[in-house]
Amino acid sequence: MINFEDYEKENAFFKEQIENNIKEVIQLKSEYEHEKYIESFEKEFAGYNSSKYVIAVNSGTTALELALKASGIKPNDEVILPSYTYISTALAVSNQGCIPVFIDIKEDTLTMDPDRIEEKITKKTKAIIPVHIHGNPCEMDTIIKIARNNKLAIVEDCSHAHGAEYNNTKTGNFGIGCFSCHSSKILSGIGNSGLITTNDNKTYELIKNMLTVTNDPALTLSQRTPCTMDAMQAAVLRAKLPYLDKIIKRKRTLANNYIKTIPNDIKYQKEENKSKHAYRDFVILTENRDNLRQHLKTTGIETKVRYTTPLHLTQYYKNSPKNKKPLPITEKTFNDLLWLPISYVMTDKKPSFICDAIRNYKSA
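Given the sequence above, the corresponding structure tokens read:
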């Protein structure tokens, strides 16, 4: 059986260091010492990511909401984002009374299509959320140019993209970066947590003030309070961070093994130009996806379909007048997309075995 994921095996590599870090946390004597421990991890991730400031929070959704609030968006403002993403990206917008405006993606890279942005910009548009989907960075040069020309904030959804790079710059440095450290992510805790990156001191101080929960009504409060990362999650993440580049290198090797052996008539997500894909996921696109998935299951190969409905067609957003037009590439992608296993504990031969199973299905 080839499991889609195996957290036990993945965490086993770090078990000793995780346990040592947790022992250290248990011995902390005060709230102040907990805060300092988390700050130490923030500094470590800032160094890794070449970002000036990092704020550790309790989830990727929290990171997005705080980043948007720090960008100055207000109720009824509009935010442009792809429909092809996890729903938390859009909920971070609508939870604040703002309007998500969805655009289509590029057919080959599955990332936000910058050519679709400007046609959606109105007087109410205040921000763009590029989603580095599956670990593949968006075409940031064009997105940054559009944002600057229209005075729009950039809030990067980097939930899949720890360590990914665009033009030799790590994601999270093109705007306010928002990372999820959920158990399923490349840099994963045990449960939920997240990170915010910024190179702007004013933004950093504004978000830090949102985390300070008091009875002072003059403060700008987050709606997701309490929202700081706990020291236990920081302990797990600190154990894994020094190995993050090795994890990405391993996942890129597995992805390359898939690419070399996958049948010619099966499409897969292409790496964005000038980018370093981190491969949180390896996804393929094929007609009759569900039949292929069933065939792989009978062969002992577990796959997933993580997203089932384009966000512009969900019950939450389909009635918005801003989202009435079809997004043809997104809609076809949702019908055809299949997630293949790419855990970094897989052996080098597993992608070839899986591709052989796909080839056998196609030739049957």
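The chain is about 40% helix and 15% strand. Try to locate this feature in the token string yourself.
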